Amino acid sequence: MRRVRTAGVAALVSAAALAAVPQASAAGGEVVRSSDDVVVYDAALVPDGATARVQAVYTGSGKTIVTLHVRGLVPNRAYGSHAHTNACGATGLAAGPHYQYVVDAVSPSTNPAYANPDNEIWLDFHTNAAGNATLQTVVEWQPHDTRRPASVILHIEHTHTGPTDSGVVGARLACVNVPF
Ligand SMILES: [Cu+2]
Predict the structure, then answer these.
(1) Ligand 1 center to residue 26 CA distance, Å?
(2) What separation in Å is there between the alpha carbon of 97 and the centre of ligand 1?
(3) In whole angstroms, what is the distance from residue 52 CA to residue 134 CA?
(4) How far is the CA of 83 from the centre of ligand 1 (A)?
(5) Residue-wise pLDDT tens digits, 14-49
(6) Distance, CA 27 to ligand 1 centroid (Å)?
(7) pLDDT tens track for 51-97
(8) DSSP string of the chain?
(9) How close is the Cα of 117 to the center of ligand 1, in Å?
(10) Exposed, middle or buried, 89 (CB in 10 Å: 0-12/13-18/19+)?
(11) Entry pTM
């Protein structure tokens, strides 16, 4: 495991500080931001100096808007990404399964009734020629008080959406802790 310090973090409040004092937006929503380092499991597809930042906004109308910014990845490449249940660890598996608002009783969840971008937070993206991307998703709910996502994982490919493999996705390349 290797931790890559992100560039230009001076304006970022630490994750711990954000967790202690959620910021209120003008609209009355809450904003959380990711911590400023990325745990890398694949140094070829998440090169030295790559950064990933996540912002979650909880709107006054009950939605969650999640934005992912990545920089310095492999140019013109598809990556998968989702919110996961556990914090980042020594291996990609430590982050656990995808966070589901309504939890599938069957694990791993491949049923499109549960493993879909309305019940999970999907952030798949395609990098531009500079290896950068921004992706935003909106779900119609906010994480449960007692069960919240803890991280965002970057995967080797886009998420599958077939009738029997929904939510299935390849290797875990990197992880960023997010105090959702
Ligand atoms: Cu994932």
Answers:
(1) 31
(2) 7
(3) 10
(4) 6
(5) 333 333 334 433 344 667 766 556 899 999 999 988
(6) 30
(7) 999 999 999 999 999 999 999 999 999 999 999 999 999 999 999 99
(8) -EEEEPSS-TTPPPHHHHHHSPEEPTTS-EEEE--SEEEES-TTTS-TT-EEEEEEEE-TTS-EEEEEEEESS-TT-EEEEEEESS---SSGGGG-SB--SS--SSSS---TTTSSTTTS-B--EE--TTS-EEEEEEESS--BTTB---EEEEESSPPP-STTTTT----EEEEEE---
(9) 11
(10) middle
(11) 0.82
Q: Long-range contacts: 90-95, Cβ < 8 Å, 24+?
A: 90/1, 91/1, 91/41, 91/172, 92/41, 92/153, 92/171, 92/172, 92/173, 92/175, 93/172, 94/175, 95/150, 95/151, 95/153, 95/172, 95/175
Ligand 1 mean position, distance from CA 108 (Å): 12
- Residue 116 tokens, joined: 């879909």
Task: Output the CA 82–ligand 1 centroid distance in Å.
Answer: 4
Q: How far is the CA of 155 from the centre of ligand 1 (A)?
A: 6
